[in-house]
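Researcher: Here's a chain I'd like modeled. Treat it as a single chain, no partners, no ligands.
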Amino acid sequence: MNRIEQQFSKRLSNGEKLFIPYIMAGDGGLDVLGERLALLEEFGASAIEIGIPFSDPVADGPTIQKAGIRALQVGTTLRDVLDELKEVRSMISIPLIMMTYMNPIMAYGIEKFVSNCKLAGIDGCIIPDLPIEEEGMLVNQLEGAGIELIRLVTMTTPKERIQKIAQRGRGFLYTVTVKGITGVRNEFNGDLSAFLKSVKELSSIPVLAGFGVSTPEQVKKLSRDCDGVVVGSKIVELLDEEKVSEIKQLIQSIKEIEIMK
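Model: Modeled as a single isolated chain. Structure tokens:
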């Protein structure tokens, strides 16, 4: 049983909702990566998504793009991140999920990437520019190493394709809440609640909502229609501004869903 499946099954069976914060590896220096991971776990994160800086990110909004540029400017590479994770993984007990693109993976070498992800304790990978039609180049190697490929669906994904995607893997289904890139949103499409509920009905694995989630109110509202949320840009912004107490407040807002049940 993959650590994602294990941890999420345990939390959901206890009536909890899931909260996955995203951080950009190398933003602020790689030497703070372990400390930040430990802090997010202490605050109650269910898992942590770790972004790899890339010069041409197709899914990232301005906040995460800027964090990626800061990380690249201090020389952060995929190899550096994996090496650092090997050193700090023993400090963290929750699942770690890597978010990257195919270009860095191909440049690194698929076999070497998968092997070093396993050594670094990575439990899942999110690769936004890898469609299911092309995932054969990577998915068997990942699954053979006990690493889940986390797939995404959007509000424009046809129902039949959502069903097809939801049938693959045992991690979770990343459900994109906006028609666009990541970034803080003040409000969401009025059809989002119905969309999340429909995806939940189609999926046998946990469904998490992400992109644009930035306030405790949004965390609570979206989590009522699915199994939890992924929060990226707001976490990156608060880390950059050193507003640690606000990060704690945001993560722990997920617990209020449990109380309301």
